[in-house]
Hints:
The structure holds two protein chains of two kinds. Chain A is of the alpha+beta class. Chain A contains five helices and three strands, in the order αβββαααα. Chain A has helices at residues 4-11, 59-72, 77-81, 85-92, 101-120; strands spanning 24-29, 36-44, 47-56. Chain A has a three-stranded antiparallel beta sheet, covered by helices on one side. In chain A, helix 2 crosses helix 5 (101-120) and helix 4 (85-92) crosses helix 5 (101-120). Chain A is globular and about 40 Å long. The termini of chain A are far apart. By secondary structure, chain B is an alpha/beta fold. Chain B folds into two domains: 3-9 and 255-383, Aspartate Aminotransferase, domain 1 (Alpha-Beta Complex), CATH 3.90.1150.10; 15-252, Type I PLP-dependent aspartate aminotransferase-like (Major domain) (Aspartate Aminotransferase, domain 2, 3-Layer(aba) Sandwich). Chain B contains 15 helices and twelve strands. Chain B has helices at residues 15-21, 23-26, 37-55, 70-85, 98-109, 127-133, 156-165, 226-229, 237-252, 254-273, 301-310, 330-334, 339-343, 356-376, 378-383, and strands spanning 3-4, 64-67, 89-93, 113-117, 138-142, 169-173, 192-196, 207-211, 278-280, 291-296, 313-314, 345-349. Chain B has a seven-stranded mixed beta sheet with strand order 2-8-7-6-5-3-4, sandwiched between helices. In chain B, strands 9-10-12 form a three-stranded antiparallel beta sheet. In chain B, helix 3 (37-55) runs parallel beside helix 9 (237-252), helix 10 (254-273) runs parallel beside helix 14 (356-376) and helix 11 (301-310) crosses helix 14 (356-376). The N and C termini of chain B lie far apart (45 Å).
Amino acid sequence: MYNEKVLAHFKDPHNVGEMESPDGFAEVGSSECGDTMSMYLRVQDDRITDIKYKTYGCCAAIASSSIATDMVKGRTIEEAEALSKADIVAELGGLPDQKVHCSLMVEDAIKAAIADYKSKK
Amino acid sequence: MEIYLDHAATMHTDKRVLEVMRPFFEETYGNASSLHGFGRAAEKAVMKAREQTAHAIGAKAEEIYFTSGGTESDNWAIKGIAELAGRGHIITTSVEHHAVQDTCDYLKSRGFDVTFLPVDETGRVSLEAVKEAIQPDTILISIMFANNETGVLMPIAEIGKVARENDILFHTDAVQAVGHVPIDVNEMDIDLLSMSAHKFYGPKGIGALYVRQGVTIGRFMHGGAQERNVRAGTLNTPGIVGLGAAAQLAVDTMEENARHERMLANRLAEGLLALPETQLNGGEAARLPGHVNITFGGIEAEALMTFLDLEGIAVSTGSACSSGSLKPSYVLRAMGLSIEDARGSLRMTVGRDNNIEQIDTAIQKTKAAAERLQALSPLFAQRRGGKKYV
């Protein structure tokens, strides 16, 4: 059902954790399946220098969280905002059809944490 | 090491059963309905299997009708009774297997009145609720013998008595129970019973419907005159012989298997309940010996299952038939579990060939996987009183 890359991220997810006084924070849920994640950003000069998260969800949700946070770490806010679920799924090498929505939650979480950062700026 | 803990989904076919079946593919291949010697040889084997199958539930051979499995038996029993009646009321529960639930939904769409009774937090339907649901036009009560997700046993003998007193037919989906707990259709006042061979070390694709003598049931498969003219189709002789042999074997070894499975299941449950935010679903009720259904609060059972799969351990998140759907178990929801707790529930079902080493490995791997997912979950942290960042 899942490819090797998805399973590798699921088994050993990157960037997991929380952050004291983050520059951007968001907690989002998927209305479709009840998955939940919290996202923490450290931002310097409009660049994401560190990113942490916690995810409650299936294998696809966890793997998407891991790879998407890898993809935006070190990127500018503008670049991170452009990340879509299609980019996440492509980077994972594909997800089963019924699991594609899991990556949307991660996209939403990154965007919401950036919005939080901007509102505090 | 691969460890199979999904025996409620299916089991391997016992080697002894396979040996009994083998000649009926190549040598004794006649059509059991043919009148020549080839046919008579097959018919003789079918007769023996019919007796073995009947014996397993305390029925008579002529009360057994062979089918393609549990789903067909459930469909036939319920639609067969309903269509003969033409109209009326059916009582069932909200935790039945889809084969019963969807059949009742279908009949509802065709104008029948159906009551889906709730269950309590232990997973059992109350006898009082059954009594209260009875209407003057109730034609059938269909309540499962044991639940496929939790293993919880329903009060079948008591329900049978109520049905008999009220002159209502009683069907039970005993697919999970046959061969694992003692069943006697006469003592329990059961009029129709569904079973499936692959749930007691028989082959897949073969099952039976028991119909009490004197009960008339509508034809389900139209065609030839097989099975006393009510279930058409060339008899699956190898399958039928396998069902009979498996039923015989299951009854002969039931006590010893049940003792072994219960010991392993208890060990498994105890080991896993040592983790925080866990609970044994249906733990308060009498259950099938091998069933363990545990909620791991704050984590997602499908993720846990995937983790265990990577370690070679096969478990499930509810019934195999509904995996792939995003909906949390309706059985656990009916028992009062929150959506989150239902999504965090894993079904592990022990079989006669599992051993203590396997169970201890499963406990250790499941604990390790659950702890990793707990560390990853914002919901688990909240349940443990961790503060939420605002």
